[in-house]
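Tutorial sheet, problem 5. The two components below are modelled jointly, 1304 residues in total.
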Amino acid sequence: MPRDKSIQSVLIIGSGPIIIGQACEFDYSGTQAARSLREEGIEVSLVNSNPATIMTDPVTADHIFLLPLTIQSIEQILKAQKIDAVLPTMGGQTALNLCKEAHELGIWEKYGVKLIGVDMHAIDLTENRELFRQLMAKIDIPVAPSQIANSFLEGKDIAQKIGFPLVIRPSYTLGGSGGSFVHSKEALDNALKRGLSASPTHEVLVEKAVLGWKEFELELLRDHDDNIVIICTVENMDPMGIHTGDSITVAPAMTLSDKAFQRMRDMSFKMMRSLGKFDGGCNVQFALDPETENLIAIEINPRVSRSSALASKATGYPIAKIAAKLAVGYRLHELTNQITGNTSAFFEPSLDYVIVKMPRWNFGKFPGCDETLGLQMKSVGEAMSIGRNFIEALQKACQSLENERIGLGSDGRGWHKVDDLLDGLQNPSWDRVFKIKEALRLGVSINTVQKLTRIDSWFLLEIQQLVNIDEAIKHYDADSIPAALLKRAKEMGYSDLQLAYLLGSSEEKIYAKRMHLNIKRTYKLVDTCAAEFSAQTPYYYSTFDSENESNRSDNKKIIVLGSGPNRIGQGIEFDYCCVHGVMALREMGYEAIMVNCNPETVSTDFDIADKLYFEPVFWEHLREIIELEQPEGVIVQLGGQTALKLAEVLTEKGIKIIGTNYESMDLAEDRGRFSDLLKELEIPYPDYGVAHTAEEALIVAQQVGYPVLVRPSYVLGGQKMRIVINDEELEQSVIGILKHFPDNVILIDHFLDRAEEAEMDLICDGEDVLIMGIMEHIEPAGIHSGDSSAVLPAYDLSPRVVDIMKEYATKLALALHTKGLINIQFAIKNGDVHVIEANPRASRTMPFISKAYQIPFLNIATKIMIGTHKLKDFTYERKLKGFAIKLPVFSFDKFPNVNKELGPEMRSTGESILFINDLHDPYFRDIYRKKSMYLSR
Amino acid sequence: MNYFKKVPAVLLLEDGQAYHGYSIGGIGTSAGEICFNTGMTGYQEIFSDPSYFGQLLVMTNAHIGNYGTLADDQESKGMKISGLICKNFSQLYSRKQADQSLNQSLIDNHIIGISDVDTRAIVRHIRNKGAMNAIISSEDQDIESLKNKLAKIPSMNGLELATSVCTKEAYSYGPDTATYKIAVLDLGVKTSILKNLAALHFQLKVFPAKTTFQEMQQWQPDGYFFSNGPGDPAPLDFAIETARHILDADIAFFGICLGHQVLARALGLDTFKMHHGHRGANHPVLNLETGRSEITTQNHGFAVDANSLKPFSNQIILTHQNLNDQTIEGFRLKNRKAFSVQFHPEASPGPHDSSYLFEQFKQYLTQ
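Model answer (structure tokens):
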């Protein structure tokens, strides 16, 4: 049966603001689904409260509803729009919960809306652990022994029966919230209490913990005729005990025999079929006992999930896109594999490379939090890397993280105390993989490392090879290292910086040496089929193999740098900016080349850019892409601080920065020169000074006067930024900064206490300035702008103040020779306007303003950057009625013991948009009242 | 484990293309037809599958050898490939159940291999130029000398290899008594096929490839099974003749892979050498009778010619078709209890989507 023609309009429900455990992978899936349905001529409506998404952009859907994800909003949409069917499987748990609630209230029925891609009964079965356990028993699928408890006493009773170690899992929570492992009686009481209170139904599952078993995930797709394919098998390098979202994962499975894999495949089919009828994606997790190869099922998710996004990027198979087609009736064999263009979508991808996914944590934002990895997901983003062997992929993943590491160790940042290392192996935190290598380097046996980590020894044997290579390399210097060894090291993913460290040389020298020896990156295609068929899609990764498949075209081309793994302060907003940048370049006839390593993004979808390099946003990798592609230039202002940081080296190497040049960026970042510029332009700014040591800092603080704002330069989201009121606090802060960022310049500003804060996004073409919008923060200055509720347009500032802000912003944008985007932040105290900072790049608020005013500002800005247009070529009309408020969203529930107070360091993970008609809106009144609380503190 | 102590090896293709890497398995020289398999699990089952006899096999999966080898996972006695070509080869393994390393298994079976070559480039080359002969050597690095050796290797086209791998003596398999007795004509049978048949409580007797119909009839089987195997089906006159007799006698018949091609030739259909064949565990097949799709394991370089089927449309019903290139994957006869498939329902390695075909054979027996 081909597509169901009765479906002419579909509502897709998004996943709302980004929180830990539910991130931008659902923007990717929702966007793919929307595009896929529109290909079928279906009218797509989309509801999501997250303005930073591509899915809520007019390029994605026909009707966009930027509304809170509530029943009221659903009814509002159904009244406004004729909807034939709703697709709730693309928006994670949030969308499913909303769909379920509407279903229970009879709303879908009332409006004649069909549910597609989902079976409500199946959702109940998978979310209720007890029902799931009973079902598995019925179909003969082994699971860990468990029982449901609805009370504290019941929980204790069950625990006694099953025996330790146990895992306590609250029902109906996201990303393992409130769950914990219990190894002893002493810890049981607290764990039970926490679990029961975390569950909305006051219910926990007390389950036997299969710690140390190997963990695997299968991604399935099923059509209406019950045909099933497995798109990807992912092996967790970190075994059972660490949430899969916090595990280093690998595809294809590395240590799995065919017999074990086929048993898993058969079981997953049986499980999916037992749940009921639904057409689309499904994810099944298994644990395998390495001693016996016995399997147990862990869980099944009848929807597109975080791992679906990863599986799509890992294989090239567009899971969400195909799942959407299946939801409207297609069968898999009626669809084409879009990568090859002429083979069937009913097939299972074959990989001739290895991918490694590495989570990105942000523990620094949550001082005092428990950094141990376990049941509950704590990472805020992830990077994926592709290599021709596991080790190359692992090292590339380390290079993608942007955590100041340059690969897996070999950078002089090692640990030297074996005891600390062994403890870190047993009690895993973010750095365990680094510690494994260090332990092996210090002579700890693979056997011991295996016992402590319970990681399959194959992975450890691979890491041991790095230790061997390190040792071999140390016998040489940059001149004497044999070409074969250098080549081998590059094949194993060593960066030039790592080799420079090992050989006592410089990155530049190593690079020159290998260019001389012709040890260069080659590029291979991700094609779903291990080269069995020729592929049509330009999705590449680099390696050091003999044949290069990426050929330079004759077109004029520009590279857009992505923002790497998501983290607090740099998230989905920049993916939105990159996608729009790429689309504007293509519209102007440029070949747009995307470089990024974040598998959750839309920008790394194979059909967004003309060419995609799935590579670390890391100078060495970028450099060789530039050498190969010879672009006109590189756009750095769309990919956040990650991309911006590369501007200096690009300029140094004579590569053109498209848009505002490096000198201007540096001027805006260099506090001294920037303040001189402000002085020259007669723009007020808070007194400031710079210091390199705590000693100097104290002197500066005396000069500018307490309270002062202390921070390192060139950092993201206010990292390590503090407001301090005396010498003692200042000294502590400075020491803290220098520990993390040795040799960094420390900026000390007089802090304007109890000032109002506002910000402005602008586009400048060098002659004219377009003020996109003015956002007034509800919270006073001192709360990071990313954590503030921002009202667009300004609601409380006097017209005089607004005029002054506009005047200053215009002067400043022009003086900085801005070509493209710039964000300027102001503090207003007693009617005096001060400029606190200026960032000549796309800001976090770009998508918010574009959505609120319904103007494609990024399209305009990109055309200005490349110089095809001037501002006077555009006309636009701001469509906002009333006000739009950007509301920060936090994930503090993941870190129960952390102080939730806000300050100059950003801690929110996501945002939502709220439209209000006027300032009498009760929600606005409520948050506005809280402002006075801040001011009175 | 030391990367620099590896023995160099070379792979030379018939068209002169050479690839340099390191030796794995035994030291020596080996030649055959080069082909590639895209399966991501089950290297041991693949290497011990007799259908790969005479072939140098490129594994597209990035890592090979990770989980060692296990006696129970063999598809025949010993490794049958003529040579192995892979990217990354693990000398050490982690699977607790494994008996030994893959390298040791290769050495024990005198299999010559080469690793650390750009397998993807080789696959692209074969994909464009088609299957061809090739030679691997870890003892002779002289290209001219290897060219001379390679020139002496016969083309796969027209090559009869089934008798080289089949059993020399008939033997019994499965239960000693059963409702149904199945005669298996061994053209290079995989152990898992026998396991699947025995699991249905069939009493099996496995006969050498050249056994005649009359000889097998003396055992009074209820049905015949023709196995998979290596080489070209065209020169298998003896087996084709046997199949004709079975059809004439209207005894239940099931053929897999080479057995399927033999049945086709017995019916008067043509077979042809494919450009580079199908080898892997992800080949999509549409069951034309049920409308359902199956992911199948495949391993064939020859196929039944679809054009030659047309004149027989009143006798032969096409039952399975490849979803990628529309080649014939299976058919059954209208007036006879005979059917066959090109793919491998026993999988091993691969998915079990098509295992219902063994049940189907049982139904044919009861008719």
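Marking note: The first strand of chain B starts at residue 8 and ends at 13. Full credit if you identified this.
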